[in-house]
Amino acid sequence: MDYKKLLLARLDDLKESLSSMKESSKPVDLNDPIGRLSRMDAIQQQQMILNARKQLEVNLQLVDAALERFEKGTYGYCLQCDEEIDQKRLLAKPEAAFCTKCQR
Ligand SMILES: [Zn+2]
After folding, report:
1. What digits encode the pLDDT tens for the residues 22-49?
2. C-alpha 23 to ligand 1 mean position (Å)
3. Cα 50 from chain centroid?
4. Within 10 A of 26 (CB to CB), how many other CB atoms are there?
5. Coil, helix or strand for 3?
6. What distance in angstroms lies between residue 91's CA and the mean position of ligand 1's atoms?
7. Which end of the chain is more exposed for a tag (fewer CB within 10 A), N or C?
8. Cα–chain center distance at 4
9. Distance between terminal CA atoms of the chain?
10. Is residue 11 part of a domain?
11. Is residue 91 one of the residues assigned to a domain?
């Protein structure tokens, strides 16, 4: 299995969602009439977008770190116990840094 390919594809995905999100999260102008959305709704929505963006950025860092481990040749091994990470887990989450046991 080519995990590097998976990681790079994931990196592209994340970057794409992040940039499309940046466009849609312009700051709310509170003096501006915002149509049917109440001010509260607009703020809440913006908060949700910010949270989602933070999550994407965290994931991006995880993928970056995984690629780095790939270069070092330590990819696929748990950072905690040095055991090999389960293949099924890597397929579902190629950026995983810990085995299922240590993740808990
Ligand atoms: Zn482990």
Report:
1. 776 566 666 666 566 687 888 888 899 8
2. 39
3. 13
4. 9
5. helix
6. 17
7. C
8. 16
9. 26
10. yes
11. no
Domain that holds residue 54: 3-74
Q: Write the pLDDT tens digit of every residue in 54-79.
A: 999 999 999 999 999 999 999 999 99
- Tokens at 1, concatenated: 């299995």
- Tokens 């949270």 label which residue? 51
How far apart are the C-alpha atoms of 28 and 32, rounded to whole Å? 8
Are the C-beta atoms of 21 and 49 separated by less than 8 Å?
yes
How many domains does the chain fold into?
1
Q: Strand, coil or helix: what is 93? A: coil
Is 30 a domain residue? yes
Q: Tell how far the Cα of 22 is from the centroid of ligand 1, in angstroms.
A: 36
